[in-house]
Q: What sequence folds into this?
């Protein structure tokens, strides 16, 4: 990808595009654009950071209703091991990750990150993963998809409100930037991991960001100005997300870890906005009753800390389907356990490949939880036309990956059974 033409984009859009391009040239363009931004420094003692890599919620900002506001910019770095893990490469990786923690505050204003490992990574060890970890190989989960699967070793998820931070952290990790926010990079990942450029994924989330992408073909002008997600509505309400406690593995050597699923998909946004009316979009995304009772508002502003799916609305899923249209969230909510959602969704929009898409990143106790929720969301059991089955007919899944996010203490090239 070449650098975007600065004169044709707003500053915010230019910075977002630089994240998608990546690399040293994009970073230097980004730094000259972001001179005035002050990034808070990291910690002198990384061992004081949370034991769970995904302990982000306590530090993230909240919106006016008190829901967690995810960082705006995201990069997923697909990594392949250069050689088999050794004590030396473990130390090198740990030192490189601690450099990030010393450089940037653990916050959306600084940098939040995780490293996760695929089932393919763990296959190299004689021992199997302990029973307390549910991490199968990723497979197709619906009859209409034929996804590629993440078979490389690891993924680093970098997230920040500042595009310069995610770009700079990535370049620092790969030996292309010798100072990060005033901290010298003495150790990087060169020789431990290779970056798989063709698998690099990027994205953004936040009110107003999707509407800034109407220059991308297949992103229609009708994306609402204030929507944080491409499909036009708020998502991730406090009461419909699993807590970090709930997704945590409590037993065995990986206690304090969790599992992550990444489902990448293309979105048919033009049809979504141009074929359907706003009430129909509400029906398909939330539930028919949400539209009939005008519960949502333009982009979800009427909903506060919950998506409004009561037990009655969830129980009405089959009947709504038979009557003609069923909601995406309504179907997915059938997989709640004792009223609690099993997934902690940290998904984001993308224009990777210059077309609109979505990286659905979810944390859960085990991958079987994800599969169960995805089956409920797919709703193959429901008696309804495909076009009216939630948002299924607008999503085209192209990749799936399963990961273990070990606790921080085991994040550097863990053995399959550290005990
Ligand atoms: C383009 C893709 C997607 C969009 C735009 C989207 C959007 C939404 C929205 C607006 C809600 C209601 C608000 C909220 O509770 O946060 C929701 C709920 C939900 N979605 Fe999605 N979603 C997408 C894909 C997925 C996928 C792939 C899954 C996988 C299982 C999923 C699972 C859920 C769940 C579990 C809920 C909450 C259900 C509950 O309340 O218990 N979504 N989604």
A:
């Amino acid at each position: 990808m070449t650098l975007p033409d600065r004169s044709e984009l707003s500053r915010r859009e230019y910075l977002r595009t630089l994240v998608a391009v990546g690399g040293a040239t994009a970073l230097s363009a980004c730094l000259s654009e972001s001179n005035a931004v002050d990034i808070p420094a990291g910690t002198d003692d990384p061992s004081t950071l949370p034991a769970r890599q995904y302990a982000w919620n306590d530090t993230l900002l909240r919106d006016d209703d008190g829901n967690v506001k995810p960082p705006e910019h995201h990069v997923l770095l697909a990594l392949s091991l250069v050689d088999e893990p050794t004590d030396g490469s473990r130390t090198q990786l740990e030192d490189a990750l601690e450099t990030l923690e010393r450089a940037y505050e653990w916050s959306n204003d600084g940098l939040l990150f995780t490293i996760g490992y695929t089932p393919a990574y763990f296959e190299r060890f004689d021992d199997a993963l302990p029973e307390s970890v549910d991490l199968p190989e990723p497979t197709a989960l619906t009859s209409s998809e034929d996804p590629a699967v993440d078979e490389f070793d690891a993924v680093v998820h970098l997230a920040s409100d500042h595009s310069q931070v995610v770009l700079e952290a990535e370049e620092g990790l790969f030996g292309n930037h010798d100072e990060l926010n005033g901290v010298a990079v003495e150790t990087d990942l060169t020789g431990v991991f290779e970056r798989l450029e063709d698998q690099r994924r990027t994205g953004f989330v936040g009110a107003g960001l999707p509407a800034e992408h109407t220059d991308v073909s297949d992103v229609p002008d009708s994306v609402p100005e204030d929507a944080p997600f491409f499909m036009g509505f708020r998502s991730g309400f406090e009461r419909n997300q699993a807590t970090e406690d709930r997704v945590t593995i409590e037993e065995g050597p990986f206690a304090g870890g969790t599992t992550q699923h990444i489902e990448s998909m293309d979105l048919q946004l033009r049809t979504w906005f141009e074929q359907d009316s706003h009430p129909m979009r509400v029906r398909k995304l939330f539930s028919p009753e949400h539209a009939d009772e005008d519960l949502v508002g333009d982009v979800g502003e009427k909903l506060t800390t919950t998506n409004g799916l009561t037990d009655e609305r969830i129980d009405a899923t089959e009947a709504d389907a038979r009557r003609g249209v069923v909601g995406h969230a309504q179907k997915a909510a059938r997989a709640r356990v004792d009223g609690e959602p099993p997934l902690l969704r940290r998904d984001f929009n993308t224009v990777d490949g210059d077309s609109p898409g979505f990286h659905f990143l979810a944390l859960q106790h085990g991958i079987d939880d994800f599969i169960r929720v995805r089956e409920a969301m797919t709703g193959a059991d429901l008696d309804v036309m495909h076009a009216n089955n939630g948002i299924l007919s607008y999503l085209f899944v192209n990749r799936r990956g399963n990961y273990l996010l070990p606790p921080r203490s085991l994040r550097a090239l863990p053995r399959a059974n550290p005990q």
Remarks:
- The chain has twelve helices and 13 strands.
